[in-house]
Amino acid sequence: MKSTRTRHSAALKAKVALAAIREQETVPELARRHGIHANQIYKWKQEFLTRAASVFEHPAEVSSGGDREKELLEKIGELTVERDFLARGLERRR
Fold it and tell me: Do 22 and 29 form a contact (C-beta atoms < 8 A)?
């Protein structure tokens, strides 16, 4: 028996859950093929179905670009200050 827990990727979980939803193979067949317990596949399938609606609710809120957005806003501010500084320098030369 294994002493460590196996961590499955989100892509594998989605793939197995979709296969379970399609019902082209039974859950025990999927479990044997992927080496995952059948109860785990049932849980992934249920979680997939309950969260499926959230994909279409608010796409702007789902994205996790908060840090990226903050970084871009800071860069915009920095470039604006630089542009204004250079514009004032050009006005003096004229």
Answer: no
**What is the C-alpha separation between 50 and 47, in angstroms, rounded?**
5
Residues 36, 83: Cα–Cα separation, whole Å: 58
Instruction: For Cα atoms 19, 53, 62, give the angle at the middle one, nearest 5 degrees.
Output: 110
pLDDT band at 62 (very low <50, low <70, confident <90, very high): low
- What pLDDT does residue 56 have? 80
Tokens of 68: 């990226």
- Are the CB atoms for 44 and 20 separated by under 8 Å? yes
Is 4 inside a domain boundary?
no
Q: Which domain holds residue 78?
A: 64-94
